[in-house]
Fold Nitrilotriacetate monooxygenase.
Amino acid sequence: MTKKKEIKLGVFLAGTGHHVASWRHPEAPADASMNLDYFKELAQTAERGKLDMLFLADSLSIDGKSHPNVLTRFEPFTLLSALAQVTAHIGLTATASTTYSEPFHIARQFASLDHLSNGRAGWNVVTSSIESTALNFSGEEHLEHRLRYQRAEEFVEVVKGLWDSWEEDAFIRDKESGEFFDKEKMHELNHKGTYFSVRGPLNVSRSPQGRPVIIQAGSSGDGKALAAKTAEVIFTAQNHMESAREFYQSIKEQAVSFGRDPEKIAIMPGIFPIIGDTEEEAKTKYEELQDLIIPSVGLNILQNYLGGIDLSSYPLDGPLPELDAEASNAVKSRFKLVQDMAKRDNMTIRELYKYVAGSRGHHIFVGTPEQLADKMEEWVENQACDGFNIMPPLLPEGLNLFVDKVIPILQDRGVFRKEYEGTTLRKHFGLEKPANRYAE
Amino acid sequence: MTKKKEIKLGVFLAGTGHHVASWRHPEAPADASMNLDYFKELAQTAERGKLDMLFLADSLSIDGKSHPNVLTRFEPFTLLSALAQVTAHIGLTATASTTYSEPFHIARQFASLDHLSNGRAGWNVVTSSIESTALNFSGEEHLEHRLRYQRAEEFVEVVKGLWDSWEEDAFIRDKESGEFFDKEKMHELNHKGTYFSVRGPLNVSRSPQGRPVIIQAGSSGDGKALAAKTAEVIFTAQNHMESAREFYQSIKEQAVSFGRDPEKIAIMPGIFPIIGDTEEEAKTKYEELQDLIIPSVGLNILQNYLGGIDLSSYPLDGPLPELDAEASNAVKSRFKLVQDMAKRDNMTIRELYKYVAGSRGHHIFVGTPEQLADKMEEWVENQACDGFNIMPPLLPEGLNLFVDKVIPILQDRGVFRKEYEGTTLRKHFGLEKPANRYAE
């Protein structure tokens, strides 16, 4: 009997949970998004569950229609540096945009976090897709989709280069001779490209993981190519096993074409699990949350999701009109996902906003712990994914249930670790520590 | 009898200490600059001493001649967020440059740190004076001194504006009505200036201090004006009480001319104390450290300090030649300080590099705890300063000695707190929480 493949698991932390109306739930701590004690508790729960990592999204603007959970929140580097002090194993991953920052700053902050967490940092590389963000950064116009991705690719190359500034054994610190470091082992990058020119070296020593883990979530053509080229972990929205299998195969094939080992890329769709002891209980929980969505809020979220398209002139209980994806600056993969869903399942605008507003297009699961474990195993066995990024609709409840009820089932079935085997995020994912490009 | 004025005290943490050769000392942990456990211990020692704050410098480049302590180090926001978790009272202040960052990022990171530390964050506003930094940020040319300060002034205005994005009571979080926040209490800044255009609002709620404390260290004409206009704490290099008194008076007068209360500005010169149980012991300790300076390293530091001026053609044991301050892009106040010192005390290049390399131009004190307490009291009584930023030549030893031997004397004399009266940095400095500009 061959050993079963181990499932990779992350938890995507967001205020009171991923359901848009979660903050209205009677049990929700409504101030969650800026409550440090609350985040400490979540991180410690996730670590008790032996999860591979926790994950934070980010944004650099507020557009007035923002989800209450993300309206105000901690800046990710500062929050993860704090959480690193109350955890010892779980990976700490943050989203940081390549559109409005500088590679030197980002390289430095992740390297520093990697040191402060003893090798648990991961970077979710994104481009900023919200046009209003430019207005916070003295920008007149928002960078067009393809250019954002070109910039992102060069940005990642520069950051990786800066992470190699110092070889592992660069620091001699010979008190007698006065030689602090070996000049041959400090490297200037001297990058000169289209978007950036960066000399280096970085002023942070090589970090415990060599390089923080690179995560990508782009699912458009450009996004997928960047992910296949650079990502070690890929987040994606996949609602059906068949399309997830296609996505999985396509990414792994592209990775091979870039000369990469497809085993070294973990594909992790988001999953939005409503867990009950019985299916009935789970359904009731879901309906309770859905009933908390205020129609105007739900519609705004759907419109936002589609890149700001105005749907106010269409009846809420009628079908989604034909929309032109090319005319929108939205995340293309999301656009397509909503359109496909609307057609396939004949969904009304109201049904769509309820679906999107609740789970933001991610896979909704409603059922028992046993059923959730079954689904996870099935998807991983069928090469639809390597694991999941759990997006609890309601926090802390959803994470507590997952850790207390689903994890033990997966452990009993031999598809999830009972103890951490290592203390770095790379180790959890079975990724080698990359060699420094300059080392002999 | 009038109550004696309380002395303000910070500790400037830097690797193995502020003496350039401190890392070579037998007791120095040579890997200090990137050792988190070590920084935790320092922070906890400083808090045991009831100090107002700890302070971190920063840089955004390495130029090959950098002091070993600052060659590689933690990024300040990440380090302070970690230290916030192992301390509860001491202020946590970091240097962040206005030259190569964006106000939105800096506003956000300090606001987040202020939340994560329950109101202990302070920002040392600087401009980047090292030309090579531009090379790490796709910049062709380094911004000229005056323009850097213009940019800095606008930068600070934008950051303060962003910190007012949300009024204190903006978040209603009424689960019943579904109203999460009061739209009237969220404010767009809509700043459009010479260097920046920033819409806002910031995506962090108003922080516990309302605004993190603003620190300034510029001592040139431009720097002093910016400090008098915006700073709540001022760091400065002052070697003689008379010139310190002049500086003090000039800043406080300028502050008044800007309509500010001079009592709400704490002027804190750096002091570099070598403490021994006897004067003899202190002198021996100092000589031990000075003897560890390697001549080529010392000369490089002096040259750097003077803005990269080449002194290699002059005899080490001869006088400093006449130099043109205007031709250098160095920090002007430092330039003048070295020139004045060279003339007044007839110092040779070797003596100058030993002085500068050791203490980097800050006030060197060599003596007993009693003598140090006397000097501190004398300066504060004579309105030469409001307190000091302690720059221990050797760490952790210098901080331990200060906390264990000097603090108790100051406490006995009634010029330093025995317990913290509050938990925010503003409270330590007797500064009010500023009102939000939009609040009625």
Notes: Chain A has a mean pLDDT of 92. Chain A has 14 helices and 13 strands.
